[in-house]
Amino acid sequence: GAVVSQHPSWVICKSGTSVKIECRSLDFQATTMFWYRQFPKQSLMLMATSNEGSKATYEQGVEKDKFLINHASLTLSTLTVTSAHPEDSSFYICSVAVGQGGYTFGSGTRLTVV
Amino acid sequence: GENVEQHPSTLSVQEGDSAVIKCTYSDSASNYFPWYKQELGKRPQLIIDIRSNVGEKKDQRIAVTLNKTAKHFSLHITETQPEDSAVYFCAASMGLTGGGNKLTFGTGTQLKVEL
């Protein structure tokens, strides 16, 4: 149980375009999802906390107008990278708390902006 | 907010030796401490975790210890094998107090097990 499906697994886009990443909880309801970004050889850094039916909470230094998060249902959260630039190229991964302190992760999305 | 420090950043051991990775955290309210193994381009895989009401936990070759007073916890891998080579992350959260609590990761340790 507690599976999170993330799509796409990889995407290449042109500079200036927008990219949407989806995370879907398959067998449970997720009122909260966490979005992380991981640059090569670095740790996972929390970008924002996605809350179902309300605005996301962004970490300091993360531009909320650039990284749009929508959590319209209890099973789906999306992250849209708007006007992507090469420096946005990274590994994006979502996560959900699954009780007893545990967390489950999506499979991640490798974004390359050219 | 929570801050998790992890050492060493790289660790090279001979096959069969033990490996120890250490982490410290800043928020005394944190109550859940998982350890993850991450292969390149993959999601983190939970290898062991410990909750704040326990001082030590062991699962075959892997053990974790927690010192709440000093706010540090450690991962111990015994009888290391080449397939243990990967990046390991520690993390901390207040996850036991609710699902809305974020997970803060350490900086990671690249473990290399040499033949």
Total number of strands of chain B:
11
Rg on CA atoms of chain A, Å: 13 Å
Characterize the main sheet of chain A.
7 strands, mixed
Oligomer designation: heterodimer
- Name the beta content range of chain B: over 45%
Number of helices of chain B: 0
User: How many beta-strand segments of chain A?
Assistant: 11
- What's the overall geometry of chain A? globular
- From the spread of the alpha carbons, the general shape of chain B counts as globular
Outline the low-pLDDT stretches of chain B.
none
H/E element order of chain A: EEEEEEEEEEE
Secondary-structure-based class of chain B equals mainly beta
Give the averaged pLDDT of chain A, no decimals: 94
The low-confidence parts of chain A are none
**Structural class by secondary-structure content of chain A:** mainly beta
Keywords:
heterodimer; A: 114 residues; mainly beta; 4-stranded antiparallel beta sheet; globular; B: 115 residues; 5-stranded antiparallel beta sheet; 11 strands
Report on the structure:
The complex is a heterodimer of chains A (114) and B (115). With 114 residues, chain A is mainly β. Chain A is 0% helix and 55% strand. Chain A has strands at 4-7, 10-13, 19-25, 32-38, 45-51, 57-58, 67-73, 76-81, 90-99, 102-105, 109-113. In chain A, the strands form two sheets. In chain A, strands 2, 4, 5, 6, 9, 10 and 11 form a seven-stranded mixed β-sheet that branches. In chain A, strand 7 (67-73) and strand 8 (76-81) form a beta hairpin. The model of chain A has no long low-confidence stretch (mean pLDDT 94). By secondary structure, chain B is mostly beta strands. Chain B has no helices and eleven strands. Chain B starts with a strand and ends with a strand. In chain B, 34% of the residues are buried. The mean pLDDT of chain B is 95. Chain A binds chain B through residues 31-32, 34, 42-46, 49, 51, 91, 93, 95-103, 105-108, 110, and chain B through 31-32, 34, 41-44, 46, 49, 51, 89, 93, 95-96, 98-108.
